[in-house]
Design the sequence.
């Protein structure tokens, strides 16, 4: 109770009104309870001998590189990089986190289409051959309509978070 009071006092002192900001936190998904129970169940009591993975993407990451190697301002060698950089466009990072170990399998590409998502999933299945995989996903359109791919690998099962609740 004491901690709760401290948190509320801190929020009020910074004029943060959670009631005014809560609309983005509320899911109107009619299957919210079932989906939440499914995902939480995978975390709390994963199926025996199965691998539980969380998969997500980070689009529009800037690819930056140093434009000049070591700084040449001083007459002696410096060990720092210049603060100037070159832009190399953007990339989308796709990553799968193995919940039990923290191991990450990742790919990146220029786009975030179904084909790029399935490239990641092919890397994941190759990393765990013959293992039962439970994959937790949000509701991105590229995560849906994968029945042909899932049918080809019956060891993989997708679990979706509730909309507006990932």
Sequence:
């Amino acid at each position: 109770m004491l901690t709760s009071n401290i948190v509320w006092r801190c929020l009020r002192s910074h004029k943060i009104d959670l009631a005014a900001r809560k609309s983005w936190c509320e899911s109107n998904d009619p299957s919210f309870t079932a989906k939440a129970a499914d995902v939480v169940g995978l975390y709390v009591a994963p199926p025996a001998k199965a691998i539980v993975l969380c998969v997500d993407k980070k689009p529009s990451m800037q690819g930056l590189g140093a434009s000049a190697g070591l700084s040449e301002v001083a007459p002696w060698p410096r060990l720092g990089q210049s603060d100037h950089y070159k832009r190399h466009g953007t990339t989308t990072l796709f990553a799968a986190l193995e919940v039990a170990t923290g191991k990450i399998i990742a790919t990146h590409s220029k786009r975030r289409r179904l084909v790029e998502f399935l490239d990641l999933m092919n890397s994941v299945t190759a990393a765990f051959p013959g293992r039962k995989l439970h994959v937790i996903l949000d509701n991105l359109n590229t995560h849906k309509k994968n029945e042909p791919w899932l049918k080809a690998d019956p060891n993989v099962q997708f679990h979706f978070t509730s909309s507006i609740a990932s």
In short: Helices lie at 2-13, 18-21, 32-44, 114-127, 147-152.
